[in-house]
Design goal:
The chain is an alpha+beta fold and about 300 residues long. It contains 15 helices and five strands. It starts with a helix and ends with a helix.
């Protein structure tokens, strides 16, 4: 029987795919052997991979099948093997598929952050810049004045949006949950933030940075409770207002305001992006004016957009 060059090419691809899969499978098996057991009791055997992720895997190994797994099948195998983003892309490349580019990296990320900073400098609203890890990389003076946070939070280690929700050492949580209604709104926004983080970073969940960040989050008060909470339709900050108690300087009285959070994209990716705030009631307008925001003209432009 004669084989074409196409047959030879497919055979090479199959060998590469099986080689990559087996390398990750054995790596994961050894990893959890050192940890004694997997939390879901996975054994990462060839038979288990066949039964759970790809029912033709044993046929590939034995040579009874010479068909290259589809892209969807490769991704299913990657999920079963708990692949990092790099391992997932290695599997895709081995099978001849285009790798996934989940987030901006390198010079593209640097450029997007520089563009975000330029927008932030000219934005007449309290605002900050956030990455897909929810790290806050910069904020303007109006945001600092509104929430009474400082640049020291940026420079003394990681400052993350989760800290805004859960860190008791920061003023934001206490000032956002001062009565029953504000607590409900704070809780809704906290759940939305966690679910957005999970959904947007689902392919990174086996990466080292994700696991390290999750360990850090778990040290924050009540975080674990809300991390495990499932909500069918958490409120988007764009559709539901927040409540906050504020003051005009250290010697003034505290008073409550309502404000709305909006997202401003700076590229064709969701992150990095600017999180900005709009006043929702008269006390909030007065506070924004005190911060130096041109409230009336700014709101007219926003209404024209939406």
């Amino acid at each position: 029987m004669l084989y074409s060059s196409k047959d030879d090419s497919e055979t090479k691809v199959l060998k590469a795919v099986i080689g990559e899969i087996e390398a990750v499978r054995i790596k994961r098996q050894q990893q959890y052997r050192e940890l004694q057991s997997h939390p879901e009791l996975k054994r990462f055997t060839q038979q288990e991979l066949n039964d759970v992720a790809f029912t033709s895997y044993k046929n590939l190994l034995s040579g009874r099948s010479r068909r290259i797994p589809t892209r969807t099948a490769i991704l299913d195998i990657a999920d079963y093997l708990e692949c990092t983003t790099a391992e997932r892309n290695d599997l895709l490349l081995a099978a001849g598929y285009i790798p996934e580019h989940y987030e901006l990296t390198g010079s593209a990320l640097k450029l997007a952050l520089e563009q975000a900073k330029l927008i932030l400098c000219g934005l007449p609203l309290p605002a900050f810049i956030a990455t897909h890890k929810f790290d806050i990389t910069d904020m303007n003076p109006m945001f600092q004045g509104l929430y009474e946070v400082t640049y020291d939070m940026l420079h003394n280690g990681r400052y993350n949006m989760m800290h805004n929700h859960f860190n008791p050492d920061y003023p934001i949580r206490e000032r956002s949950s001062f009565n029953a209604e504000s607590f409900r709104k704070w809780e809704s926004h906290a759940i939305y933030g966690i679910q957005t983080f999970k959904q947007h970073n689902m392919y990174f969940r086996y990466d080292a940075w994700y696991r390290t960040l999750l360990q850090e989050f778990n040290r924050l008060k009540d975080f674990k409770t809300y991390w495990d909470y499932e909500s069918a339709s958490p409120a988007d900050p764009i559709s539901e207002s927040k409540m906050l108690i504020v003051r005009k300087g250290e010697d003034s009285e505290w008073f409550p305001i309502r404000l709305r959070q909006i997202h401003i994209s700076v590229s064709d990716h969701m992150f990095p992006r600017i999180e900005a705030f709009l006043p929702e009631d008269l006390p909030a307008r007065h506070m924004f004016e005190w911060l130096g925001c041109p409230v009336e003209s700014m709101l007219d432009r926003y209404q024209a957009i939406v």
